[in-house]
């Protein structure tokens, strides 16, 4: 198996020894619509992303350490969809092509209740597929009849950003999720805007607020071709409710 070389040498967030009792408590709280603390949310999302990434690697016969998650977005997102449905967790599946024309990619907006109200996250465990060295260089550009018909992947444009912004992206690549705020929405949205051949002259016009509005306005993806279940609730309450 050939190791996939990426522009950033990062280690994925590993939750191999997650405390099952903590996960069960959080799953039960989600089932009951209870609030989840910040510490528990981070622990829980890290666990979910790790488990679904492991499941996808096994499904595609890949090594988690050497894989870029290419073409696995639908299997991963459909698995999270099934899992969230079972625990009444609020989410929305979005095709980035409905936000930024030209790049088809699935991600999720996921909501949890906190003492201060609703907290929303961008969840994208397969974002890493856009950061391979082979597709993140200027040689990828192609023109035809005076217009650009191919651009490098997202990572090429992230490399041109500030170190501070790149560090935020590295953390997102590692974790597979980040809180949805204007800063993060702009980082995430701009990476796709700059890579779209339909926005050849994109020059930082979109604000984070505008991206969030687009996320909210675009239609949710309800049906997916994949029906894989790479992850299931471990709480006994879920299985009791199924009987």
Strand and helix order: HHHEEEEEHHEHHH
Q: Ranges with pLDDT <50 over ≥5 residues?
A: none
Mean pLDDT: 92
Q: Helix count, per DSSP? A: 8
In spatial order, strands of the major sheet run: 1-2-3-6
Supply Rg: 18 Å
Largest β-sheet summary:
4 strands, antiparallel
Helix content: 25-40%
Structural class: alpha+beta
Q: How many β-strand runs?
A: 6
Proportion of residues in extended strands:
5-15%
Assembly level? single chain
Quickly count the domains. Answer: 1
The rough form would be described as globular
Q: Give the CA-CA distance, first to last residue.
A: 43 Å
Written overview of the protein:
The chain is α+β, with helices and mostly antiparallel strands and 243 residues long. The protein has one domain (20-230). The chain has helices at residues 20-31, 38-59, 73-86, 154-158, 163-175, 182-195, 208-217, 236-242; strands spanning 90-95, 106-114, 117-123, 142-144, 147-150, 177-179. The strands form 2 sheets. A 4-stranded antiparallel beta sheet has the order 1-2-3-6. Strands 4-5 form a two-stranded antiparallel sheet. A hairpin with a 2-residue loop joins β2 (106-114) and β3. It is globular, with a radius of gyration of 18 Å. The termini are far apart.
Question: Which helices and strands occur, and which strands form pairs?
Answer:
Elements: H1 20-31, H2 38-59, H3 73-86, E1 90-95, E2 106-114, E3 117-123, E4 142-144, E5 147-150, H4 154-158, H5 163-175, E6 177-179, H6 182-195, H7 208-217, H8 236-242
Helix pairs in contact: 2-3, 6-7
